[in-house]
Amino acid sequence: MDWFTAPEYWLSRQVFQRGLACLYLVAFLTAALQFRALMGERGMLPVPRYTARMPFRRAPSLFHWHYSDRFFAVCAWTGCAVAVALLAGLDGYLPLWGAMLLWLVPWALYLSIVNVGQTWYGFGWESLLLETGFLAVFLGNDEVAPPVVVLFLLRWILFRVEFGAGLIKMRGDPCWRKLTCLDHHHETQPMPGPLSWFFHHLPKPLHRVEVAANHVTQLVVPFLLFTPQPVATAAASLMILTQLWLVLSGNFSWLNWITIVLAVPALELPADAPSVPDAPLWYVVVVLAVAAFLLFLSHRPVLNMLSRRQVMNRSFDPLHLVNTYGAFGSVSRIRYEVVVEGTLEEVPREDSDWREYEFKGKPGDPRRWPRQFAPYHLRLDWMMWFAALSPAYAGSWFGALIERLLENDPATLRLLRRSPFPPDRPPRHIRARLFRYRYTTWRELRETGACWQRTYVREYLPPTRLATAARRP
Q1: Are 37 and 44 within 8 A, CB to CB?
Q2: For residue 388, which of 336, 431, 432, 435 has the smallest C-alpha distance?
Q3: Can you tell me the distance from the alpha carbon of 182 to that of 201, in angstroms, rounded to the nearest whole number?
Q4: Residue 471's pLDDT is what?
Q5: CB 45 within 8 A of CB 1
Q6: Pick from 159, 137, 158: which is nearest to 147 by CA?
Q7: How much helix, strand and coil, in percent to the nearest 5, is found in the chain?
Q8: Non-local CB neighbours of 245 within 8 Å, separated by 6+ positions
Q9: Which residues pair with 452 in a beta bridge?
Q10: C-alpha span between 293 and 278 (Å, rounded)
Q11: Which residues pair with 359 in a beta bridge?
Q12: Which residues are 342's β-sheet partners?
């Protein structure tokens, strides 16, 4: 069946599958190490409380049938183990149907996590990993050449990721049309990286070039993915270079990396493809049926892209099979940060010994240089950025965070870089204050060694203490 497969993409499939397995590993590792404090039985947004009010049909998940922290940990670590097996190429040693089932396992496990993840899993790259992971089930292994229709659908996802992001920018913040958004973005993005300070201080004309190049890459180049080779390879390569530039400029979880992985199947990599028999009939039927179903579902994201009221990062079905994507439709001009502090004093005063909690990724101490964490995702740090934009983003979980800190909850403290209080002496009171942060100038950096300068804005949360030491949800 020459029309059904494309042997020349054999190496591209191999690279894509190993890259996707690596991202699965990061995603499951993130879940395993952070879930207890975020959504465990005694977490800020407990899963049992969520599943009690959310029907299974709207959020299919294993945890509707049973939840315990131990069971969640088993699922997350099982996902890590399967991802390692796929990264090592175990699917190539299995029969075709066995490889498909093996790829189905991490998709089903991660779907179960995302569908109960609530606020902590409300990011576009969660759905993107699931949509990509579902297609990977049907990409085959060494027994068959890559199916043309699946390679096309992977390009279709990449097209929607890039073109949707480009449209949301042009329809959103005027600074994208004026080519001025990067005058602010590197400073106000959710989690700056170690090079973000330097990106911010690039000459403004270069920022204009960056924005213009971004528009070309997102609004023009995606159409070239569906042209013959070598044009499609050139288009995918340009997208990869753009994503690597973004990797250097900030911490965006695995969004950039999965976009790079999605571009790989469009590359015609030079390699001698092994000789394999024709695809079995049952496989052809299954792949074509799934492809037809996904193309039918695609009318929703297409209508969304065509709409003047385009939304970004929304799933159109509970299985996250087809989604819409986008990022930074608006860009903040000013960076605000919520600084959380505690004191051991019984009666809190302004001149009390207030000690600041340090987060792993979000800006805090002005002298502490940002670190590189992506593709690993610091979920609490990201949500603290949203909390600084508006208390409405923090209404469901911020109070629970403060309560856990007042208790010196070990699981919550593990999400932080450092607590200023010993394990046996929790703070009596905690407060939160809002600060404006800006990057220092070259001169300020040389004189003070600080990459940030911060200015107090207002009180975010007044001094708060536990009503009772035994209080728990």
Answers
A1: yes
A2: 336
A3: 10
A4: 38
A5: no
A6: 137
A7: 55, 10, 35
A8: none
A9: 439
A10: 24
A11: 416
A12: 355, 430
CA distances from 243 to 35, 137, 402 (A): 29, 25, 36
In angstroms, rounded to a whole number, what is the distance separating the alpha carbons of residues 81 and 75?
A: 10
Beta-carbon contacts of 420 under 8 Å, excluding residues fewer than 6 positions away, are 342, 355, 356, 357, 358
Q: Which of 410, 422, 370, 428 is nearest to 186 (CA)?
A: 370
- In three-state secondary structure terms, 324 is strand
Distance CA 155, CA 403 (A): 46
User: Is 470 a residue whose pLDDT tops 50?
Assistant: no
Comparing C-alpha atoms, which of 404, 461, 415 is closest to residue 434? 461
Distance of CA 180 to the CA centre of its chain: 25
Nearest 10 degrees: CA dihedral of 337, 206, 329, 166? -150
Q: What is the DSSP letter of 2?
A: T
- pTM over cut 0.90: yes
Phi, psi (rounded to 5 degrees) for 455 = -130, 130
What mean pLDDT do residues 105-131 have? Answer: 97
CA geometry: angle 375, 378, 381, nearest 5 deg: 135
**Angle, nearest 10°, between helix axes 299-306 and 281-297?**
30
3-state secondary structure of 448: helix
- What 3-state DSSP class applies to 308? coil
- Cα 353 to Cα 6, 381, 433: the distances in Å are 67, 25, 15
Paired strand residues for 459 = 433
Q: Which residue has the tokens 């001025």?
A: 180
Query: Tell me, what DSSP letter sits at residue 147?
Result: B
What end-to-end distance do the CA atoms of the chain give, in Å? Answer: 60
Strand extents, DSSP E, 9-85: none
| Cα gap 372→195, rounded to integer Å | 9
At 298 the three-state DSSP class reads coil
pLDDT per position as a tens digit, 45-70: 999 999 999 999 999 999 999 999 99
Do 305 and 326 touch, CB atoms closer than 8 A? no
d(CA 62, CA 113): 8
